[in-house]
Amino acid sequence: xxxxxxTDPQAAQPGDKxxxxxxxxxxxxLLGAVGAWVAADPxxxxxxxxxxxTATVPSSTGGALLHECGGGAQALCQHAFxxxxxxxxxxxxxCRQARLG
Length: 101
Known about the structure:
Blueprint: H1 16-40, E1 52-57, E2 64-69, H2 71-82, H3 86-97
Antiparallel strand pairs: 1-2
Helix pairs in contact: 2-3
């Protein structure tokens, strides 16, 4: 009866160490490739666009991106230059960079 055979759980199979090494190496290569991609491509919000505003502002989770283009960016910048609250002061440099204020 094969189900009643006792096997030693500590007994290593012939290719276990090699298989583990291949899995660890493949995981390291994959993590390295993802890390390099993330470092090289910050995403579309980080690149300045003509007429677009991107500002990092404090949030309940630490930080958030405010991103507006076109009419939304113009309205955001008009509000930022009319008011003196903390959020408006943080948005103003991004508005200047986008030449909207």
